[in-house]
Amino acid sequence: MNIEDYREFCLSLGDDIEEKLPFGKFKSGEGVLVFYVCGHMFSFFECNDFHVISLKCQPDRIGELKAQYDCVGNPYNESPKHWIGIDPTTAPDHLLKELTLNSYEIVRAKYKSKWASANMNKSRFWLTLFALSTLPAAAQQRPNILFIMCDDMGYGDLSCYGQRHFTTPNIDRLAQQGMRMTSAYAGSPVSAPSRASLMTGQHTGHTHVRGNKEYWHGQVKYGLNQDFAVVGQEPYDEAQPILPEILKAAGYRTGLFGKWAGGYEGSPSTPDKRGIDEFYGYICQFQAHLYFPNFLNRFSRSMGDTCVVREVLEQNVLHEMFGDDYANRQQYSADLIHQRALEWLRHQEKDNPFLGIFTYTLPHAELRQPDDSLLQAFRGKLLPERAYCGDKPSRYNPTSEAHAQFAAMITRLDVQVGEIMQLLEERGLADNTVLIFTSDNGPHEEGGADPEYFNHDGMFRGLKRSTHEGGIRIPFIVRWPGHVQAGSESDLPFAFYDLLPTFCDIAQIRRIPQYGLTMKKGRLISLLTSHLSSLDGISILPTLIAKGHQRKHDHLYWEFHETDMLGVRYGNWKLVVKHGKPSLYDLDIDPHEDHDLADKHPGLVRKLVKKIYDDHTDSPLFPVTLPPKD
């Protein structure tokens, strides 16, 4: 029986395994079914109940394997002299083959706290490996996931969402080829916690990072410029597995290009420590205020990096960070990051699924970019023009043409999305890639941005930092040829914390043993007591592919300490709390949230306030004022 026959055979075994197996005798235990073949004992259980395989080998080989493969470790709190554990859901075939050919002595299968073990020869090893594997038969055909998230783009900033001052033909084409979501919500009204919600599958009442807490320490000089020696934001909770770690554990290659904002330099939560193979961009979102910065951060396994490093932009540092001399800087971060992302994409192959997270910084302030044809096309066209004098402490350089700059930045972003789409086609990857475009939160008014002129929030009230609709409702487009209907639209309300279980569903992940996670009815469930009730997302895959039952949230939840605001969406109702005072709106008839109905529906207000108390866990770092219970 060859490898693929073994795989097909083992995955064909179901609940009636005892009737299907044509040999041996059976012994049922607590969750473990043990059977004997030719005098050798094997153990089998449902694939979704897989934890780990352990085996005995030479001590010097253990070290080599652990250093080379993330799927290899020590399975118990015993001396690792002879024992290693491998996870066959993520172990490459060549590793499994090598272990088989070298005839390692013992295999154990762990189910809950029960163990079964056997002395086995190499000819029997394959059966156990594939019986315990959770990988589907067509493992190499699992979809790629490419998630493009821009920075501070409002709901109405794309022509396919109503923008009239400029067009976004490539992103519009993406919407025509896939699904346009009209009730998609960010995880938070600002950058770092919104990304944390995406990464952890938690809303901001549970996730550790709930605000833009900054870490800037020390001084270092780059050419003419003083900069911070350490930069970044509050790190993600080390104990909480995040999106790239989970998909990497399932065999995906991972790349992140753009803004990180999930931990400061040297912290326990930087891309090199959190499941990212290749990273290029800004560790720190404050550094990203400069589009012509002193340095960008890099972590590249392919280049031999062992940690995140700074890549100094040598031409930029010859000129000042602020003022007239800034215009002489030529190394534009948005273009540099995009080119690295394209380079990474060119190295992806059909036979290995990948997760790309492109967290592009456009169109966040500052409003500066190269004086090229994209900018020149809007110069003098969007009148009356707006001038901005700059803000040196915030690292926003001045501009005399804020309108033209903003329109050109969105256009530049649209061109970049078009280049990504073209490269996927050229590489033959488009049909098997779930391509998503969205924004991290609502539009800003920093750095000279003019939300009133561009009507950034479309029909919605509020901007970045607000839990009104304009601060959290975002454009969201999904293309997956052959699965997501072209030209379709959905008004399903969902938020960023739903994307982690959605991506696990797309990647056909049913269990992540090393993190104690399992997929059940569209939800990612933690088997670890500390996180049992803190995974909040629900997969939206049934809506995307128009197949299966779509489970829905009872409500969606946000909180943000900086403006002391909370938000709850419950059907068509929206509760907004500011400084502890609740206001109630009916989004069906009042999407701009102009008419407070709290006094007319006190019972509903009490009901939604109770949901706040159910969802909120206290955070000393990011305190908010809860409304009175009565």
Q: If you had to describe this structure to a student in words, what would you say it looks like?
A:
The chain is of the alpha+beta class. It has 3 domains: 3-137, no CATH class; 140-366 and 398-507, 3-Layer(aba) Sandwich (Alkaline Phosphatase, subunit A), CATH 3.40.720; 564-615, Arylsulfatase, C-terminal domain. 23% of the residues lie in helices and 23% in strands. The chain contains 16 helices and 28 strands. Helix 1 crosses helix 5 and helix 4 runs antiparallel to helix 5 (122-132). The longest helix has 25 residues, at 402-426.
Task: Give the SSE map.
Layout: H1 3-12, H2 17-20, E1 26-28, E2 33-37, E3 40-44, E4 53-56, H3 59-68, E5 72-73, E6 83-86, H4 93-101, E7 106-111, E8 114-119, H5 122-132, E9 144-150, H6 169-177, E10 179-185, H7 191-200, E11 214-222, E12 225-233, H8 243-249, E13 253-259, E14 278-282, E15 295-300, E16 309-312, H9 333-346, E17 354-359, H10 373-376, H11 402-426, E18 433-439, H12 451-454, H13 469-472, E19 473-479, E20 488-490, E21 494-495, H14 499-506, E22 511-512, E23 517-520, E24 523-526, H15 541-545, E25 556-560, E26 565-570, E27 573-578, E28 581-586, H16 602-615
Parallel strand pairs: 9-17, 9-18, 10-20, 10-21, 13-14, 13-17
Antiparallel strand pairs: 1-2, 2-3, 4-6, 4-7, 5-6, 7-8, 10-19, 11-12, 14-15, 15-16, 18-19, 22-23, 23-24, 25-26, 26-27, 27-28
